Each structure stands twice: as structure tokens, then as C-alpha cells.
Amino acid sequence: MAGYFFSSPIDIDVKLEGEDVRKLAETKGEKDKMISCPVYYDGDTVSGQISIRTRDGKKVQHDGIKVEFVGSIELFYDRGHHHEFLSLSQELAAPGEMRQAQTYEFGFKNVEKQFESYQGINVKLRYFIRVTISRRMADVVKERVRVLGTLI
């Protein structure tokens, strides 16, 4: 019941451009569940749309909305500490309020993916899209499952 009071008043959906025609690769997600992820090569452009909708038509104040393309490495002996070796950011909206659904376009051109995505026993290296809606009390953050980076 307490989770109801702290749930986010906002739904965020991230769609990647051309993900339906791009090569997919199977990888482990949360709790070892297998998921399909689009494969992006070094130098590919990563673009798409972000749809944000308020629940129950409520007005939501925010201090800005941004999207990031992140490359992160996690060492399993050092859980909780992620090293972000790549972080590209794009502002989607200035501070204001939302009353209805909004869709934003984003694009990161010719992204250099220095390393291949990898998940092993001791290390996890991944690329992902992160959307952050900054708010006074608590930010709303959504991470797009994964974007696999593979070198040519």
C-alpha cells in the first residue's frame, strides 16, 4: 500500500528509430530474464522519440527534462558503483509544467562506442538511454533497457 503513495505520477516510453528493422541480440536482463536488444555499431546514430504522459491527467511541475546516452561499466565485486565512461546529454524541455502527453525527438549522431557490450561473471559493460525528469522532491528516471554496442 505504501508503494502507491510513492509511485511516479508520470509514464515514460522510449522508442528507438528503426529498432524494428535493426538486428536484435539476446542478452540477460533483470533477474536473468532474456531480452532482445537492438544492435548499434560504432559510429551509428542513436535517435528516437520519448513519450511522456501524466497519470490521471494531473498537472506535474518539473525542473527540466533531459535524455542521455550512457556507456557504463559495473564490476561485480564493487556492486553499486558504476563507472560511466560515456555520457552524452540533450535537453528536451526547460522547467515548466505538464498537463497532457508530450512527445520529444532526440538524436545522438555518430556515437563512438569505444567498447563492445559485454556481460560476464565479473563485469557488465552496457550502453543505454536514460530519461530524467527533474523535480523538486524526487527525479523521475527511466532507463531504456539496453542498446547493444558492437565494434565493426
TrEMBL record:
Alphabetized UniProt keyword annotations: Protein transport, Transport
Keyword Nucleus assigned: no
Pfam families linked: Vps26
GO biological process terms held by the UniProt record: intracellular protein transport
Domain of life: Eukaryota
Keyword Transport among UniProt keywords: yes
Annotated family: Belongs to the VPS26 family.
Protein name, UniProt field: Vacuolar protein sorting-associated protein 26
Organism of derivation: Lentinula edodes
